[in-house]
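Tokens in:
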């Protein structure tokens, strides 16, 4: 296996590192305004949301708390199974909290529609969603998203937290995986 030439496995770049960071600043200003005077708990969805969480939290110029959940609906393939499992639960009590779920991508919407319902049932004061990417043409269930970075075409993307078989999460931008990798 070639461990060095990661970029060669991209057929194109969809969102550059610079575009990601500019968008995060924009989203952070909206979030600061919307949550003024309120507590804010960011809930990151492992593992894909790690990069978004790291950069969004540092773009926010206010107090926040962070907690993490791990859920899985994909395994190592590229198509959603629709079955959501909790692999790691939150440590925080959500009673009365303003929760903002932080995600890398909404594809079918199955993960987030399930997760939002799950967190709402724990007595949070509010539960909203911030996702860096959304694929409007792939949605199987409607998900009300308050903060969305980019709408992208219905293609399998990697980078900035998004993996293919656990690799490529460390790419700084987001791109489309070249077919030679999985065909
Ligand atoms: O809208 P959906 O079709 O439900 O897909 C979106 C979810 O799929 C990916 O996670 P995955 O379950 O692959 O795990 P990961 O975050 O560890 O990569 C992604 O990070 C989202 O959490
Ligand atoms: N890496 C990756 N994970 C996903 N999970 C749901 N959609 C996608 C996607 O396009 N790429
Ligand atoms: Mg994920």
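Residues out:
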């Amino acid at each position: 296996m070639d461990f060095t030439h990661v970029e060669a496995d991209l057929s194109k770049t969809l969102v550059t590192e610079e575009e990601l960071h500019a968008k995060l600043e924009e989203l952070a200003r909206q979030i600061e305004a919307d949550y003024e005077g309120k507590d804010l708990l960011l809930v990151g969805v492992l593992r894909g949301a790690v990069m978004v969480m790291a950069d969004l939290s540092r773009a926010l110029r206010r107090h926040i708390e962070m907690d993490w959940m791990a859920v899985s609906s994909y395994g190592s393939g590229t198509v959603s199974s629709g079955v959501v499992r909790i692999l790691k639960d939150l440590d925080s009590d959500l009673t009365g909290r303003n929760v903002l779920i932080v995600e890398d991508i909404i594809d079918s919407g199955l993960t987030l529609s399930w997760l939002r319902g799950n967190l709402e049932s724990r007595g949070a004061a509010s539960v909203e969603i911030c996702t860096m990417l959304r694929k409007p043409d792939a949605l199987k269930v409607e998900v009300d998203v308050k903060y969305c970075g980019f709408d992208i075409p219905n293609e399998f993307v990697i980078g900035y937290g998004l993996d293919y078989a656990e690799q490529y999460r460390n790419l700084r931008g987001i791109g489309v995986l070249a077919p030679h990798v999985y065909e």
